[in-house]
Design goal:
With 470 residues, the protein is an alpha/beta fold. It folds into 2 domains: 191 residues, Periplasmic binding protein-like II (D-Maltodextrin-Binding Protein, domain 2, 3-Layer(aba) Sandwich); 216 residues, Periplasmic binding protein-like II (D-Maltodextrin-Binding Protein, domain 2, 3-Layer(aba) Sandwich). Helix content is 35%, strand content 14%. It contains 18 helices and 14 strands. The strands form 3 sheets. Strands 7, 8, 9, 10, 11, 12 and 14 form a 7-stranded mixed beta sheet that branches. A hairpin with a 2-residue loop joins strand 4 and strand 5. Helix 8 packs across helix 9 and helix 17 runs antiparallel to helix 18. It starts with 9 loop residues before the first helix and ends in a 14-residue tail after the last helix.
Length: 470
């Protein structure tokens, strides 16, 4: 999981919904059902086992996962773990391994695939293990992927939320910086006002000044990409809207509340000219856009709506950066998500595999939290001062992080829709082009969203139910 995220693809499309899998190397991947263990086929006798752990991510994440695996092996005598790193085409690799009944013992998985494999009996229902391990029982019900009563496909190894990142050096002349707590969140108009003051043409004029040249801008006040749900989903929820009604069977993305948000986002670019279009960032769809860190470092943009993972790159830069909460309409909300960690139902060593599973989702077993790529999932890391300080008490995390991220996630986060709605892949196939159309400004938001109704509603199959307690 890199902080670049290939803008709007991997992490933004969904936290590593890693695209599909390179065919090369599949044959050498091995399989849970066929590996030999000291206890013989089908058993993990004597505590010895040979396991596999499959994951996506950058070279930095690869190093961290390999270190985590070494730590696990050091604490579990007789158990060896083969790390399988798939930096791209993850989904195709998953499909190939599923077809050959050869899933690794433990693996990263995007939510829709995890639900599908759980319903097919391909992965282990981890519900019976929740009360046995503190690393699992110390989580909220919403931190699990429920596909039925007492049926859990997995839990995230890490969490992410949406935030505002900004270059502090660009806030001069008394311009207010983004608020660092939900109760002080800007209204949309306040965000727009600040973005307007921070937008400068080549002559240094902002849009409020006579002679401003909107077609020759050197610094935009804000970047808020419409092509990613990390931008628009928390905002429509803040305004009382959603993609569907509570049953997940009725399309509501064209409600007045949703239309207002999408039109506001579109107007940032084409009406107010305080945010760059996809073409101005890197091509028609913005796929080649610079990273948030580069945008802030080069002063191309003063503020960016992006995920918490951006902190990894920012922490390695010399930029004077900080963060704030998203603007609020009716209620202050951010979006929270984390990819699913699954355990194969066909593992030859279930006792050792669940130990690896639990170890891998334990927030104390990776430095990716203190380095800024991830946020922990266990509740103690948001409620206990010592536990909080164990991952944010460093130079990477700005002072504002405690309220703008830790408290914000704990008290003001809503779950990513791709992790609660059924039949997401089919829905995304029609929603994604619509978001791209809004981003290009070719049609008003309401017209695009109205046109989605007849395409989305037939695809709706309800929501996965999250219980009130474990």
């Amino acid at each position: 999981m890199t902080s670049n995220l290939i803008n709007n693809l991997s992490r933004r499309a969904f936290l590593g919904t890693a695209g599909a899998a390179a065919v090369a190397g599949l044959a050498g991947c091995g399989g849970s059902s066929s590996r030999d263990n000291d206890g013989g086929p089908g058993g993990g006798g004597g505590g010895s086992a040979k396991l596999q752990f499959m994951f996506w991510g950058s070279a930095f994440e690869k190093t961290a996962i390999e270190q985590m695996i070494k730590g696990f092996e050091g604490a579990h005598s007789g158990v060896t773990v083969d790390p399988i790193h798939v930096p791209g085409d993850y989904q195709t690799k998953v499909n190939t391994l599923v077809a050959s009944d050869d899933l690794p013992d433990v693996a990263y998985m995007d939510a829709p695939t995890a639900y599908r494999l759980a319903e097919q009996g391909k992965i282990t229902n981890i519900y019976p293990y929740i009360e046995k391990f503190d690393q699992l029982s110390g989580r909220q019900p919403a931190n699990f992927f429920w596909y039925g009563d007492k049926q859990v496909a997995g839990t995230p190894g890490a969490s992410e939320i949406s935030l505002i990142w900004y270059n502090k050096a660009l806030f001069s002349g008394g311009t207010a910086m983004p608020p660092a707590s939900a109760d002080q969140a800007w209204s949309w108009d306040e965000l727009l006002q600040t973005a307007t003051l921070l937008t400068l043409d080549q002559d240094g004029r902002n849009p409020t000044e006579s002679g401003f040249k909107g077609d020759n801008i050197r610094q935009f006040g804000l970047s808020a990409p419409v092509t990613t749900q990390w931008t628009w989903y928390p905002l429509i929820r803040s305004n009382g809207g959603d993609i569907t009604d509570e049953t997940g069977m009725k399309y509501t993305l064209n409600s007045p509340e949703c239309v207002e948000v999408f039109q506001n986002l579109q107007d940032l670019v084409y009406k107010h000219k305080v945010a760059p279009s996809p073409a101005q960032l890197g091509g028609a769809d913005g796929a080649n856009a610079p990273t948030t860190t580069v945008l802030l470092q080069t002063k191309r943009v003063a503020m960016v709506l992006d995920g918490q993972w951006t902190l990894l790159d920012l922490g390695k830069s010399d930029l004077d950066y900080s963060l704030g909460v998203l603007p609020s309409y009716q209620q202050p909300f951010t979006m929270e998500a984390g990819s699913c960690r699954i355990m194969s139902a066909n593992t030859a060593s279930p006792e050792q595999a669940i130990e690896l599973y639990v170890y891998s989702v334990d927030g104390s077993n990776s430095d990716l939290f203190s380095q800024g790529l991830w946020m922990p999932v266990e509740t103690k890391y948001y409620s206990d001062d010592a536990a909080i300080n164990s991952w944010i008490g460093n130079d990477v995390h700005p002072p504002e992080y405690r309220t703008a991220a830790v408290d914000y996630r704990l008290n003001n986060s809503i779950r990513d829709w791709t992790q609660t709605l059924k039949n997401v892949p089919a829905i995304q196939e029609v929603v994604t082009p619509a978001m791209q159309e809004i981003a290009t400004g070719s049609r008003p938001a309401k017209e695009v969203l109205d046109g989605l109704k007849d395409k989305v509603e037939p695809l709706l199959k309800g929501k996965y139910t999250i219980p009130d307690s474990l």
